[in-house]
Amino acid sequence: MKYIKLRTQILSIIISMTILLLAVVNIYNYYDRKEILYNISIEKLLILTKVIRNFEKEQLILYKGRSQGIQNDRSLMDAITQKDSQKISQNFNHIFSEFKNETPKLMHMHIYNTDTSLLYAHKQNEAKQLLHAETNEVLKEAFKKKKIVKGYVVIENKTFFYSIVYPLRKNGEIVAYLEYGIKPDSIFKIASKAGRYKYALYLHTSHKTGLHRDLGIPVAENSHIFENLKIDQAFVYKYANKNKLLKYNNNYYLFHQYDIETRFQKDFAQVIMASNVTKYIEENQHKTFITILLSLLALSVIYISVYLILSKLINKLIKDEQELLVQQEQMQIVIDNNDNLILMLQKYQPILANKTFLSFFNYETIEEFTKEHPSLADLFIDDTKLFTSLQDMSNEEWITQLNKINDKEKVIGFKHYKYGIHYFSVQITPVPHEKNSFVIVFNNITKIFKQSQKDQYMARHDPLTGLYNRQSFNESISLDLAEQLTHPHNSSLLMFDLDFFKRVNDTYGHQVGDDVLIHFSKIISDHIRSNDIFARWGGEEFVLLLIGIPEDVAYKIANNLREHVALAHFDKVGHITCSVGLSSYKDDPSVDEWLLRVDEALYKAKANGRNRVEVI
Question: Is 83 helix (H, G, I), strand (E, B) or coil?
């Protein structure tokens, strides 16, 4: 039943995906249309920008060359310098006519004195208006910067032109300013023809409505659409350069806006363009319809095919599942009869465990275990003698790390929920044809491991006192001697001997003698550092290696230890003293020489009356 339900769920998913796909198609076509509109906007603006820049560049080159020609005419420049109005007018009337014939776009030519007074004007009234108009920022900028300046000028919201002001120089000094007025409306006619759009050129005003500066009057246009739509600044902010469509007379229009400004003229004027994109919209709608239709046909075929395939697969899955259940039951019986802990992981996640494993940790099911312990490493006993996981190590990480070490080191510890710590050797076997899947067998080696640890301990420690034995001490002092060769440091060696210890054994017996040795060992151990090496050398002799301690400090420590022993009370015996020999490291070539010297110091202490410290 669950597979039939699965089939229904899959088919429901396919239907949902069909709906989603249709939504995606619509969204795609929506953004496709937006991209088309965006590209159209960019194209129109690039055309206009290119035409305006080319126009400004051509006019500057043209009139710069003409101005240089005038400047090179010595006779004319003398007349300008001398303010000879009659001679200037005669020459410039001829020059203007000549320039006008060559470039019909030229509207006027004016000459201004350096004190801003009018020297020559092709149109007197216009020149005076131009000079005194508040909007004449081009001429003001030229007088201020004393260099060629270009920009746009409007007079009384009627006359609009492109102005180039050229300073005329004689002997390096500016003697006058020559101003050209050029018709700019031809620019927009060329641009609108190249870009196939309607345009209107509006001046900006200083008046604001809210945050928006109001749109000024139109000074040039090629369509009544702008007047009919009653375009204002709010309309511009809403539609221009926003890729928003406006339907007008059964056509779709896309609006663009371009600011006309120069380096010193901000928000001077703006061009509003309207592009008819009806053709693109209709093509996009047709494309969307065809795409949806084809998608529905394709998905219908997929739906039927999936239904037939799923029906066949479900029958096979039901049969395979039944066979798998039988195999799992057989496998569970086998592993449950095993005394070792067995765990199976699939993609590093536990999926199966035998009864021994679950009962060890006191869980009923593997699901309960996994819920509380996502990683088995959480249960590893932290012990330097065992493989110990790092903090928060995942199953994948600890299995990877364990596989890198040799089999003898693959030993971990688990705490039984009731009977304490047990030790296990770990055997990891990858499952064939299953990536990141393993069968892990934890072999219980608790008895063997504990006996091995005990044997290792006994091999290095004195069985009576629990101190290091002679062999362990020799290894430690040899390491310190080797360290001296590479990293020189002060170390001192002490050798203890219990005074008249033979009398204790003879008087009280060996059991009491052993108790004295144990008590003595504890006294010394309680008063030394954890990194000092204290060992039983043999019989009643003991050695102590003070690592990094110079001779003078070691002497004080030795006397302090000797006093602690002398003041202590030993059961049945009372008080016992000890003699101490001391010798610091003196570039000894071998351990034997160092030990021989401290042995001589001990002999000296005993010879000089015992219960004392002697240094050699």
Answer: coil
